[in-house]
Amino acid sequence: MAQLREHGTEIWKYLDGKHLEALEVSLATKTAALSYTGVVENWRIRHRIKISHVGLVLCLSEGPQLYEDDKPHPCATLECWIDPFKLVSQRPSEAVSAALQGQYERWQPKAQYHFVTEPTLDDVHKLCLQLRSEAKDERILFHYNGHGVPRPTITGEIYLFSENFTHYVQLSLFELQSWLGTPSAFVFDCSNAGLIVSSFLEFAERRDKLNSTSNTNLDQAEDKKLGNDKDGWKKELKSFSESIIFASCGAEETLPTNPYFPADILTSCLTTPIQMAFRWLLPRSLVSGVRLEMLDRIPGKLNDKKTMLGELNWVFTAVTDCIAWNSLPRALFHRLFRQDLLVASLFRNFLLAERILKSLNCTPITHPRLPSMSHHPLWHAWDYMMELCLSQLPSLLSTDEKTGPGKDYLEDNGPCKNEEITRDIILGERMNTSASYISIPFFEHQLSAFETYLMIESEKPTVPEQLPIVLQVLLSQNHRKRALNLIARFLESGDWAVDLVLSVGVFPYILKLLQSSSLELRKELVFIWGKIICQDRSCVADLVREKGHIYMLDFLDTDEEEAYESQVMALFMLSVVSGFAPKKLIESRALDTVISKTVFSKDARVRRWSFLFFSKFIKNCPPIAQELFENDDFIRTTLTVLRSDESPANRASVLYFFEFLPPGMPFQLELYEDFLLIRDLGVDLGNIALGFIISIIEEKSDDASPLVRREVVKLTARTIKSLHDGDPNIVGYCMEKNLVEDPLGTFLLQVLLYLSGDPQIEVSSFASEVYKDLTETFFRNERQTIKEGETKPSSGNCNSSCSSFTPDIKNASLPRVVSLEGIAQQMEAFKIRSTTDDDDVDYNVIDNESQNGDKQSQHIGNAWRLPSLYDWSQGEIMNLRISESIKGDRSPQSIFESLYNSNKQMVYLPEILDEGYLLSDNSVYIHQHHVESLQEHLTLDLGGSPITCLKFSPMCSQLIVGTRNGEWSEWNPESGTQQLSASCGNREICAMRVIGEAGGRITSYTRYALLTACSDSTIMLWRVDRYNQDIRMAFSCRCWSQFDDMEENIDYSKAYISKKFAISWEPYHARIATNRRNPGVIRFWDLPQEMCFARCRVPLDSCINSLTWTGSIANMGPQCLFGGTDNGSLFTVDMRTKNSIDSIPIEQSIHNDAIIRVLGQSSSTGGHLLSASKDGVVCVWDPRKLSTELEAATTLQLGQVGFLAAHTCLPLFACRTTENNVDIFNTQGELLKSLEISGCAEEKSRVNWITFDIEQPYIGIGQENSIVSIYSSNKAQK
């Protein structure tokens, strides 16, 4: 028979849910720290040093050469693509200077250009002084062409012409530095240019040292004037060593003389990179039909991306940016490629110059020195794109050739007839383009590569090399939507991804896109902006300046039902803007838009962030609270969310919103009595918001969610703060200085006292600290310790319970702990003591006594240091993922969920789905001969505390033991060693349930969830990581409170009160059914929602002793609940009813005494329902034949039954028939084995619990005397 393995799917979704982190100090602090922590590097360039003036110094020889030159013949002669020897009427130096100026103006048209031809020493001196006088503190570019003068000297002098051009004179670089000053940039295009660089840097270092020692006081005065030097820009402004230098070759190298290339090859690469790239590639390309003269007539314009030249320039910018981004340190990349347009263009083009010159045995030099990037793989992609263009070039130029554009000026048969060099040829631009140009697929390929990177999940974050290319794609309207989508998906990776996106320079682009009216870009753009604002708040000023808040409001006004993540981002950004410019939001009527989104939104996250937005808006602009509460739909939506929202974080966000609500604001409480249960506290609060707040505190202090209860503590403390310190005319209530003499103050103190006994340690420690701080402040002279039970006081006994206090509050003020928003962050540590039904429990002691509880102590300490709900939620923004509707794909999990949601009545299909109850692959099946051979295998002594519960883990066969003093521990049944342990705080454990992790076979053995139920109606859910030895209480709540009794109008004077806590766990949907104290009332709890979602009355005059779901019964599904009462009655509750949940009594005359347990059991024939009563009657029922008269398949009369246990999957059950005897039967009623527990007879103890292992032939028996006996079969087949 196939054996079933029990799993919970919903429970692991819940345990892996992010909102649980909000109560775990380390994780919550880490999550909150994701937002605005300065993780993003200093990407914003606050001080730009731009090139404003350019000086061109061209030393070209037009007359007889005055020095010996070893140039071959023929050699390179082109200067700025002009052959000086083919010009007749125009002076070559003037033509080249004009051409060079035109080429520079293409990269920076706003700069001022000055040039001198055939310069003398005096000419250069005047030029330098003029440039510095006009540029002031801006950067100057000094371009030196020394092709007509001797090479630089070893000591670093460059040559100029004499006054009468009879000889050459030397210009020292030291003098040049003095004339130009700083900041400056230099281009030296001549042979042996490396000598210039080394001498220049030597002089610069000498000058910097001299300036640093002589001008200290002057620099300090100037520093005060210029401000902070955080970005290091002052150093660049003053230091000669920070100058930018481009040199054409090394110190011992000469420029290439190949006539195929121009003589000023560095200048040509720096100013006309596309022409140089084509000329270099042509002899290396396999494309045929392209002649050299065609390269000078490339069609298009640089600024038109729809033409060949424009698109190639666009691609070249993307390629060189990407190469530099992946090769340089971030700071250097920002300085060289993001600070100034002309400097960035020169360095991009220099990467091409390095590639070309190195192929010609020259090594160009820059300062700052760059690593070699000539062999980067992206150059191959660039070559491929150029070849695609080369293949189109002949056809594009064929029309021009037919019309006779004229002979090429490079032909060798004499001077060109047209001596005026046209501007488009000099600049490499042709206006007459053909419409048949086919765009190259470079950006499509790179976007696909980036998308592939995003699809591959890596444990270690890696920098995507395509990021600068994606940035360039934003310039294209055709690919913009896809690029934004990929950037949004990349930002899901975390804060480091935001860091990279900002560093690469995406911010100016997305800032400009806020002016776009395109509706299809809004989802992605809002999502990206949300990630950036979460990480860097300095961007809020830019957002508001560009009216980005109106953009967000317009997006919220649109009906984007699927873009919930982007709506969350928009609300988050509006909450940030409310603190920066609240008046802007008031002017744009933001309140109406967000109220509408709150009332009508179907998404839980949108509702939560709506209330968080209101919280911040009211905090920064309190008068809008009145406008909010004049909207009846908003109030009713708020109360509905608070009481019945499925998200615990949403209910907590409403309480967070109430913290900032002015208590004295007018409010008609009686209009909403249908939403609230209002007690009479003897104070008239019906016309102000304070009464509304008090009612909320009263009700939500018993909420099942620990996160909500923590917010109740904060709301209570803030209310006391407002009433005590506020003006009575403003807050609407005059509180007595002595809190215990004020009925309202006393009530609020009692709420804190009640919550100090909360089962969730983070809540109880927080409430205890707040209460302790209040009592120490108000009652410091005569403080007494109040000892109260867990029963929450009503208004009638508040004064009497606090009558022992005699406070002295002459100079008292409310403690620091409730002064600011982050109450939990302001507290100091103290030893936690929680008030419970039993003795006080010191959890620190429990941790120290636990053998393996070191990890748990990390979670229960310092609960007051938890960040506020808003801080945690905004940190959670960094974990927000873009919606699947934007991605355009669906995961297998979402497909399964939609399949299940479409058919709520589906049964388990274990042979198809690895969910719910799974088939075991290698189980050890327990047959009858295994039971007959059971022998005592191991005995464990737990040291005195009676055993109250046992459970084998279904995943790894570990035995989990629960005791009367509230401790539970995990034991290895083979070796008898303890693995883990934790404490429920002196609460007797009466039931346990283990849920293994859904998924892989390996991880399922290392992680599981444990549900413990305590006799005081407290349930706790533990997340256990066996691999890391980590235990975390994920959830806890009281399943009964006096508030519930008041709501259900139960008269305990006439009702029999049960002391037994009946509970049953349904793991597939993570639902719990409980009953305690209230006769005949069953509460149904949804664990992911952390709330009681339904109640059911059982019309029987008795109390419920046992409950069980039918989930463990094969083919029935987890939809029905069976139960037994203390008068022998059975009943069932069908959860599939649409209108109401009602119980159905099962008529039977077999059980005449109190039913001990009701259990479900699966089998190959469909499953059984077992019941046992105190009079010794055990029945096996077929639940599929449920009718008014349920027929018993098997009935046993055992005389006496003290306990019933059943195997989950096999037709076996065991009963305690005497104090020390356990009998094992099959479902046909045959006795298979009778075990006499020797320890019970010797110590006059009894058996308290029996449990079967689901996979291994183990049976665990727990005794009153703290002894656990493990029986196993020696015939197990493995």
Automatic annotation (TrEMBL):
<dbReference type="GO" id="GO:0030307">
    <property type="term" value="P:positive regulation of cell growth"/>
</dbReference>
<dbReference type="InterPro" id="IPR036322">
    <property type="entry name" value="WD40_repeat_dom_sf"/>
</dbReference>
<dbReference type="GO" id="GO:0030674">
    <property type="term" value="F:protein-macromolecule adaptor activity"/>
</dbReference>
<dbReference type="InterPro" id="IPR011989">
    <property type="entry name" value="ARM-like"/>
</dbReference>
<dbReference type="GO" id="GO:0031931">
    <property type="term" value="C:TORC1 complex"/>
</dbReference>
<protein>
    <recommendedName>
        <fullName>Raptor N-terminal CASPase-like domain-containing protein</fullName>
    </recommendedName>
</protein>
<dbReference type="GO" id="GO:0071230">
    <property type="term" value="P:cellular response to amino acid stimulus"/>
</dbReference>
<feature type="domain" description="Raptor N-terminal CASPase-like">
    <location>
        <begin position="48"/>
        <end position="201"/>
    </location>
</feature>
<dbReference type="GO" id="GO:0010506">
    <property type="term" value="P:regulation of autophagy"/>
</dbReference>
<dbReference type="InterPro" id="IPR004083">
    <property type="entry name" value="Raptor"/>
</dbReference>
<dbReference type="InterPro" id="IPR001680">
    <property type="entry name" value="WD40_rpt"/>
</dbReference>
<keyword id="KW-0677">Repeat</keyword>
<keyword id="KW-0853">WD repeat</keyword>
<dbReference type="InterPro" id="IPR015943">
    <property type="entry name" value="WD40/YVTN_repeat-like_dom_sf"/>
</dbReference>
<dbReference type="Pfam" id="PF00400">
    <property type="entry name" value="WD40"/>
</dbReference>
<dbReference type="Pfam" id="PF14538">
    <property type="entry name" value="Raptor_N"/>
</dbReference>
<dbReference type="InterPro" id="IPR029347">
    <property type="entry name" value="Raptor_N"/>
</dbReference>
<dbReference type="GO" id="GO:0031929">
    <property type="term" value="P:TOR signaling"/>
</dbReference>
<comment type="similarity">
    <text>Belongs to the WD repeat RAPTOR family.</text>
</comment>
<dbReference type="GO" id="GO:0009267">
    <property type="term" value="P:cellular response to starvation"/>
</dbReference>
<dbReference type="GO" id="GO:0005737">
    <property type="term" value="C:cytoplasm"/>
</dbReference>
<dbReference type="InterPro" id="IPR016024">
    <property type="entry name" value="ARM-type_fold"/>
</dbReference>
